[in-house]
Amino acid sequence: MFSDENNGMNIFLVEDNTKLRDALKRGLEATRGVRVVFDCARGADALTALAQQTPDAVLMDVQLEGDWNGIQTAIALRRELPRLPVVFYSIQDDDAYYRDFRRSGILSHYAYVKKSNYLLPEMIAPLLQDARSGRSFIDPEIEARVQEVRVKDERAPMALLEPNEQQVAKMLAQGLSNEQIAARMGFKDKRTIARTNGQIYAAWGLADNAMDEKIARTRAALIVRAGRLIQWDEQGAPHAQNERGEWVVWEG
To answer: For 238, phi and psi rounded to 5 degrees?
Structure first.
């Protein structure tokens, strides 16, 4: 069970920079409101420690040693202890981290801040306390980047396809025939791929403006290679969305 909210907090500290980890530990404990009961550089080590003791919260860098980043570590920890309070911090500005955060499903009992804005222990301690109390906070700079990545992903053509359709689309873009794709995916009937192609064309709006299958196939391949949705008008001119979401002539 978590300790009483009026008492000091017992936390895990997960940070791959040894010097920073030691400095944070000393600084947090100097506030007299936080006690670091376990610290490490790897998410997997934090998960192992969770089997031995239950912290009130976890303070964690997003970039870590080992196979898991901080977001992935939080997911693993919360499988064992749902809604375990976590405060993430990072100086990294990487789409992959923001994408992992969006997909993590973390909705409460957390804070996510830029290290450069909230590095001082006296600023981190209140975030830990708020996270333990169920109040969540996200740094406005982080929130802006998370939303930017969301918009980017929603415009990505592959996001509109199911996993097997994504596989077919990639092989289609490589120039493979339906027979070849069927063989690689273990289907005996190439008509399965033809049906999947139809689903891809429909998802990307190609079924409406490319009645000929060969044209639709070529346009689908262009979309895969461009990594963005493209629409063709009645004259066959391609259009793509700009940063404001407006459809403009695409020049490739």
So the answer is: -80, 145
Distance CA 128, CA 36 (A): 12
Q: Kindly state whether residue 2 falls inside one of the protein's structural domains.
A: no
98 phi, psi to nearest 5 deg:
-65, -35
- Establish how many alpha carbons lie within 13 A of residue 89's alpha carbon, considering only the half-sphere containing its beta carbon: 24
Q: Is residue 1 part of a domain?
A: no
Count of CB atoms within 10 A of residue 224's CB? 20
Same domain, 134 and 14: yes
Task: Confirm whether 4 is domain-assigned.
Answer: no
**Tens-digit pLDDT profile for residues 204-213:** 988 766 568 8
Inter-residue contact 87 to 119 (CB < 8 Å):
no
Q: What is the pLDDT of residues 161-214, one digit of tens each?
A: 999 999 999 999 999 999 999 999 998 888 999 999 999 999 898 876 656 888
Residues in the chain: 252
Number of domains within the chain:
2
Question: Which residue(s) pair with 232 in the sheet?
Answer: 238
Residue 181 within any structural domain of the chain: yes
Q: What is the pTM of this model?
A: 0.65
Residue type present at position 165:
E
Cα angle 74, 79, 84 (rounded to 5 degrees) comes to 55
What domain range is 165 assigned to? 156-249
Residues 160, 148, single domain; the answer is: no
List strands edge to edge, sheet with 9-14.
Answer: 34-40, 9-14, 57-61, 86-90, 110-114, 137-138
Same domain, 167 and 209: yes
Q: Which residue has the tokens 């070849």?
A: 180
Of the candidates 46, 54, 44, which has an alpha carbon nearest to the alpha carbon of residue 13?
Answer: 46
